[in-house]
Design a protein that fits this description.
This protein has about 425 residues and is an all-alpha fold. The chain contains 16 helices and no strands. α1 runs antiparallel to α2. It is elongated and about 190 Å long.
């Protein structure tokens, strides 16, 4: 499964918190939401659950104000991880589903893959392995449609292997673990290779194929001894011991458990130390070393009481804090709902005014277009009349010129009136 929150020292975490709080007042909506989620993660690391959820809630409210679908999706996705941390898996699944819907609207493919993987993890932690497998297969389908980076693919393969093994589909689980190993080896990622070896070894060990499992556990341990933390080194020895225990080689199992004891922090009560004490007690008992077996049984009993008391106290504290957060969250939600309602009403009024103005502008534009068209027609008609008038004037001029020309010809060919009168007078006189 994917690791949720990186572990940092308390001092380093406080420095990060102080730095983020200084920048927060001047941040825009997008930066504000991102920084609030970073603060939520840091407060989770320091076990301040109420503060963590308060900042996550602030991030979500600010993201909604900014109307940025991608940022809203990122906030819902990370809020789901916080829900997983407090074991509220149904709420986590709901938040991952909201993130997925927003990423789909925004077309953010990497975000979709992340949300689906996280949803699959939530189902897995809630022991709904069948639903978990479906999520991981959907993530793989999305990845193959648009490959992004091989780290995501490695996570998908590992998660698919875990989901299949959870349903006792060991061969299929082994197939996916080996696919993850191929990518890790190609990328030369030592820690990823070690985890792949560990997954394959555990898968084979559960099937009682110890001779096949041991080489993988040994390879994983060799890498962890070079590059891993003390906890990882102890885990490597414990895995080898469990394989030897299953084939009744108790001496070899004890040898590895004692080496694990050198690396594990016995002052921190956790499930790793609990498993180690339990395995030591069982192995000593099998070798009939009752005194040593009783020693670790007593340590285990004391450890169980301490862990149980701490778990009960933590659960009570967590419930109290979550109840407090729920009350404050309800108040904030009501205030926010009222503000959103006012904003919606204001936006609705603004939109009404905007649409009314657009209609008026549209009518004016249409009216101006009609006037312009009529003006163009009128101008065209005037130009046509002027052209025709000009043609008529030209014709009249031609006619008058023709008449004048004919008259000049007539005058040049026919005798003048005075000459005719004189001739007529002479004729009358002769009579």
């Amino acid at each position: 499964m994917i690791f949720l929150f990186p572990k940092v020292s308390i001092a380093q975490s406080q420095l990060i918190i102080d730095s983020l709080l200084k920048k927060l007042p001047t941040a825009n909506d997008t930066s504000y939401s991102k920084m609030c989620m970073d603060l939520a993660d840091e407060f989770i690391n320091s076990k301040q659950i109420v503060l963590s959820f308060q900042y996550a809630d602030s991030a979500l409210l600010r993201a909604k104000n900014g109307n940025n679908l991608r940022i809203q999706g990122i906030v819902y996705n990370r809020l789901g991880l916080l829900n997983i941390y407090v074991s509220d898996y149904s709420k986590a699944i709901d938040n991952f589903d909201k993130a997925l819907r927003l990423f789909k609207k925004n077309g953010h493919r990497l975000g979709q893959i992340s949300a689906i993987l996280n949803m699959g993890n939530a189902y897995y932690y809630n022991t709904e392995c069948n639903k978990s497998e479906k999520c991981f297969r959907l993530a793989l389908q999305l990845y193959r449609a648009n490959p992004i980076d091989e780290t995501s693919l490695t996570n998908i393969y590992n998660n698919l292997g875990s989901a299949c093994a959870c349903q006792e589909k060991y061969q299929e689980g082994l197939y996916w673990f080996k696919k993850a190993l191929e990518i890790s080896e190609k990328r030369r990622d030592s820690i990823s290779i070690a985890y792949a070896y560990n997954n394959i070894g555990s898968n084979l060990n559960v099937q009682d194929k110890v001779s096949e499992a041991l080489p993988y556990f040994e390879k994983a341990l060799a890498i962890k001894l070079k590059h891993g933390s003390n906890t990882e080194k102890a885990d490597g020895y414990v895995n080898i011991a469990s394989a030897f225990y299953s084939i009744k080689k108790y001496d070899k199992a004890l040898l590895n458990l004692e080496k694990a004891l050198m690396f594990i922090d016995t002052s921190v009560y956790n499930t790793g130390l609990k498993r180690l004490y339990n395995d030591l007690a069982d192995n000593y008992e099998q070798l009939n070393k009752i005194e040593l077996s009783n020693k670790y049984h007593k340590l285990l009993r004391h450890l169980n009481l301490e862990i149980f008391a701490k778990e009960i106290a933590a659960q009570i504290e967590q419930k109290d804090m979550m109840n407090e957060f729920s009350k404050s969250h309800l108040r904030d939600s009501l205030v926010q709902a009222s503000r959103i309602e006012k904003q919606t009403a204001q936006i609705s009024r603004s939109n009404t005014v905007k649409y009314f103005l657009l209609i008026i502008v549209g009518v004016i534009i249409i009216f101006m277009a009609i006037l312009y068209k009529r003006y163009k027609v009128s101008q065209a008609q005037k130009e046509e009349i002027s052209r025709q008038k000009h043609l008529v004037d030209e014709k009249q001029t031609e006619i008058m010129d023709s008449i004048k020309y004919a008259r000049r010809i007539q005058e040049s060919l026919l005798p003048k009136e005075k000459y005719i009168e004189r001739v007529l007078t002479n004729i009358r006189d002769k009579k």
